Amino acid sequence: MEVLANIINGASLGSVYAIIALGYTMVYGIAKMLNFAHGDVIMVGAYICFCAVSYLGLPALAGVLLSVVGCTVLGIVVERLAYKPLRNAPSLNVLITAIGVSYFLQNAALIIMGSDPKSFSSIIALPALQLFDGRLTISATAVITILACVIIMVALTLFTTKTKMGKAMRACSEDRDAAQLMGINVNSTISMVFAIGSGLAAIAGILMCSAYPTLMPTTGSMPGIKAFTAAVLGGIGSIPGAALGGVLLGIIEILARAYISTQLADAVVFAVLIVMLLIRPAGLLGKPVNEKV
Amino acid sequence: MGIKALKPQTRSTIITYAIVIVAFFAVTVLDGMGFISNSLSGQLVPICAYVSLAVSLNLVVGVSGELSLGHAGFMSVGAFTGVVAAGCLTRMGVESEILLFVAAAVIGAVAAGIIGFLVGIPVMRLRGDYLAIVTLAFGEIIKNLLNNFYIGVDDAGLHFSMTDSSSLGMTQGAILINGPKGAVGIDKISTFALGILLVLITVAVVLNLMHSRDGRAIMAVRDNRIAAESVGINVTKYRLMAFTVASALAGAAGVLYAMNYSTITPSQFDFNQSILILVYVVLGGMGNISGSIVSAAFLTVLPEVLRPINNYRMLIYAVVLILVMVVPNTKIYQRLADAVRSKLRREPKVPVAAAEGGEADE
């Protein structure tokens, strides 16, 4: 029973990683950049929801909506101001800009909200699920997080395969120049990817803070790195890969924390990543790229 | 003979050394005249450490063309090994601070070099962003492991444990590394002069490597791996060489950094630290050693200068970072730069992309 509970908790944490990793992987797929500021968008999303619920007294759902809208706008603005001018710059310059944005968001949050951790009250006020005569207790947050991840995955898959915008998105990540020749507006497609990724990050931030209620300006950075790891583990650029990588990473982390060592859990997670990448250098679901000479 | 008569390579080498030496004398003189504030003079050793780190990371990122996000990991290996070495030597009765420092730096560099070599073997099988994430992972693993290291020394020798400090089984002696609390009670033996010495050694190692046969092979691998391989260059060997040398130099810089504080913790050497060093390298210019020196020094001083507006300084730092990257890519700037360039040199216009050059991607 204990193992099962741990696996479910792991899947819940992993679902958060998966939702964040989706943002990473889509942005990487289309803009070929590592958006290190993505983790901090999570933090911004959680803060917006926290302020809306605790200070303005709005209902939880309104807080979530506000936070998603806020982060979506943030994503678009950041892309326009910081990343768009660098479309043809070397990838490292874009990386440094993303780091600059990350510092900016963290320090802006520090100035506005202060450095003391806020205790995020869970927006999910449902009783925990009792299974097998109460031998297995699953928190409502865990259930909802996993559900949210599944819904987002299905919606995103439908979006990228069925809609015109989604197809344009995939065309851009396949070959940006060819897509442009076919009449796809690459700039607005990239903006849209940032918007979707940031909106998802807001949801991830709220779900994460509902399970782990400490909210600080640096709250987003470690989950951001883990989600990035998950995206690479699944094969960066691949949407199902990000989900698979995220869930796997979450389960490994929780199991390592429970059965190996609390302090060494992160080391185990990263060690698994390294071993996986040595066996499959392009990630679990990534396509190996053949080099042309 | 004028400096213009020299080969461009020799000229840039001389300028690089000159920057460091002139900076050393300028700072020493200014300090003697009391122009340097306390908070700034406290930053002198860290500046030297960061300059060394930036130069060594430039060997990996700029010269060898691999994005490494785990440089702080090697820095911490050096720092903690150096602290343990210095602790043991002090106990053995070595009193000369210079001797202690040199021994610690050498041992730290060797340890970091060995770890760098071991990490490099699997890492160098990967490319591009995958390589970057694995170096990040190794950096985090090193930090995580060091968080669980407990090392003490007494008359019986070194004691090591991975559970807690009480299981070291020591009744007397000193605990050198205390898990997440890090290394405590370090003798502050780093000085600005030693720092400058380390910077000069680092620069000399990197420049000499760059200008040697091996260095040309490393750059050939960066510019076109397949072409380099086809003319018989052992790709893995040269990538690994650059990575190991850079790790060892980072280790020495870590010792310099650690010996400037009485306490260091493993969590100081996290991903953000690696990123900080990477920022220096990119801002200074890939493969440009004097650029790394200047940008590392400038960006370490910048937050100190901004200290009066304490709350906003990191915000301004972030904005500066973004602007430095974004502004040269805006149309207005490019037009201005073109105009200035043609005014100054009266040469035919060159496209900006071609003039910048030095991109390390494959």
TrEMBL record, chain A:
Pfam families: BPD_transp_2. Keywords: Amino-acid transport, Cell inner membrane, Cell membrane, Membrane, Transmembrane, Transmembrane helix, Transport. InterPro entries: ABC_transp_permease (IPR001851), BCAA_transport_permease (IPR052157). One of its GO terms (biological process) is L-alanine transport. The chain crosses the membrane at residues 6-29, 64-82, 94-115, 135-160, 192-215, 227-252, 264-283. The keyword Cell membrane applies. The keyword Cytoplasm does not apply. It comes from the Bacteria. It is a multi-pass membrane protein. GO terms for cellular component: plasma membrane. One of its GO terms (molecular function) is L-leucine transmembrane transporter activity. It is found in: Cell membrane. CDD domains: TM_PBP1_LivH_like. Belongs to the binding-protein-dependent transport system permease family. LivHM subfamily. This is Branched-chain amino acid ABC transporter permease. It comes from Collinsella ihumii. The lineage of its organism: Bacteria, Bacillati, Actinomycetota, Coriobacteriia, Coriobacteriales.
